[in-house]
UniProtKB/TrEMBL annotation:
This is Sulfur carrier protein FdhD. GO terms for biological process: Mo-molybdopterin cofactor biosynthetic process. Pfam families: FdhD-NarQ. The keyword Cytoplasm applies. Required for formate dehydrogenase (FDH) activity. Acts as a sulfur carrier protein that transfers sulfur from IscS to the molybdenum cofactor prior to its insertion into FDH. The keyword Protease does not apply. GO terms for cellular component: cytoplasm.
Length: 260
């Protein structure tokens, strides 16, 4: 979403500039707030589903309803869970002792922050042609970036087909959650284990955790990963590549067998 405002120049004239919309979004489950994030208020149902899954709160079939409500200070993203998931969420809330924030939302221990990831078993091999095609398609598809220069993007590459989904947001975690929700809610959910997540941002450990929870076997980014991200990808069986401005410049950090 884009906002427009006037900017005064040195000669006291004014021009219209486009800015990426950013607001506070409170994510709540069954009436209890789990996290408050700064995000672009678009694709909010995708955001609700993706956040719920990648944060380990609920599966898609355990979400009963999603209701984004505009309030004076932002958006109240209300998520209603089925009975079993709701009870798990209550138990999780009782164990929380610290504040929540962006990236590792609702995590209160070092063990939870560096949680062990189940191995990703999907079958995906990315070729140089696949990667170059996805990068070119992502570059053309980022409307929010083109209008404002202030957003991240997350896309999903299916080898042999190219980019099949993309979401943008002012936050890199939010962009990945929105992409995850779009995939999980659509007909392409069955293809998640056969493709790669492509990010315009750097790769931190929490992004690897989200990709692993989603079930994506490959993660590629335009920037570099952190040491913790590489270790997490190695442990989870995720092929990890960074600095991927083009296929011949990409650097592979984990599971090179995922790349031809």
């Amino acid at each position: 979403m884009i906002a427009t405002r006037a900017q005064r120049l040195a000669d006291r004239s004014e021009i219209g500039v486009s800015l990426a919309e950013e607001c506070a979004i409170a994510i709540s489950y069954d009436g209890t707030t789990q996290a408050v994030l700064m995000a672009t208020p678009a694709d909010l149902e995708d955001f609700a589903y993706g956040f719920s899954v990648t944060e380990g709160i609920a599966r898609p079939d355990e979400i009963e309803a999603v209701q984004p409500v505009r309030v004076d200070l932002g958006v109240d993203l209300r998520i209603w869970l089925r009975r079993d998931a709701g009870q798990r969420f209550i138990g999780r809330r009782r164990r929380m002792v610290g504040p929540v924030g962006c990236g590792l939302c609702g995590v209160d221990t070092l063990t939870a922050a560096m949680r062990e990831l189940a191995p990703v078993e999907g079958d995906c091999t990315v070729t140089p042609a696949d990667l170059d095609l996805a990068l070119a398609q992502m570059d053309k598809a980022q409307q929010l970036r083109d209008a404002t220069g202030a957003s991240h993007a997350a896309g999903f590459l299916l080898p042999g087909r190219g980019l099949i989904a993309l979401r943008e947001d002012v936050g890199r975690h939010n962009a990945l959650d929105k992409l995850s929700g779009a995939l999980l809610r659509g007909e392409d959910a069955r293809l998640i284990g056969q493709g790669a997540v492509v990010l315009t941002s750097r790769i931190s450990v929490d992004l690897v955790q989200k990709a692993a929870t989603l079930g994506a076997p490959v993660l590629i980014a335009l920037a570099a990963p952190t040491s913790a991200a590489v270790a997490a990808a190695e442990a989870a069986g995720i092929g990890l590549a960074g600095r991927a401005r083009s296929a011949d410049r990409a650097e592979i950090y984990a599971h090179p067998e995922r790349f031809s």
